Amino acid sequence: MAKIGKRTAAAREGIDRKKLYELGEALKMVKARASAKFDETVEVAFNLGVDPRHADQMVRGVVSLPNGTGKTVRVAVFAKDAKAEEARKAGADIVGAEDLMEEIQKGNINFDRCIATPDMMPLVGRLGKILGPRNLMPNPKVGTVTPDVAGAVKAAKGGAVEFRVEKAGILHAGVGKASFSDEALLENIKAFADAVTRAKPSGAKGTYIRRVAVTSTMGPGVHVDPQSVH
Helix and strand tally (H, E) in the chain? Predict the structure, then answer.
């Protein structure tokens, strides 16, 4: 068994691994243990009662967090002419078409969110094997394929978080920074939980949200009572 470092052991002190904490209490514990030299990201993880291998049990969506994420999001937009200009004015970091496709094919992926106008999708579709595994492929279901590129760019820059359940039924996202107030983090997590609840697929049976945990980038996880996230 790997030896636990002094810092990790100290961070775990006072946390009952078998207990389900109320969300507000859990956040206080996470923030108190976020002692890295940088502003750690606070993350929430859900264990859902779904099997995403089945199409009718896939969970994905996007939510705008009321207090933002605290993260600088780099946005790339596939658009031409007037739409490209709209994207630039809205604050997009990279705007292009064939030239942007070529850069991505070379491995130059200098962005966190990718948006495209509908007419660009035949072009973007060629990049599925590159963008798909990185969860960067534009998708109309989460608002990243849209004629309203200005609105999509502003949403991405303003704290929109895209989520997608992984193979084991785990779904996680960054919901703010340790420097955020307790109230801001609480509001963000509840907004995220509401979005996950609304995205409940038709094929989900039994308990949908089974387990919840919160943590910071370098800190230990704290188990949360699922009833307290709503």
Answer: 8, 9
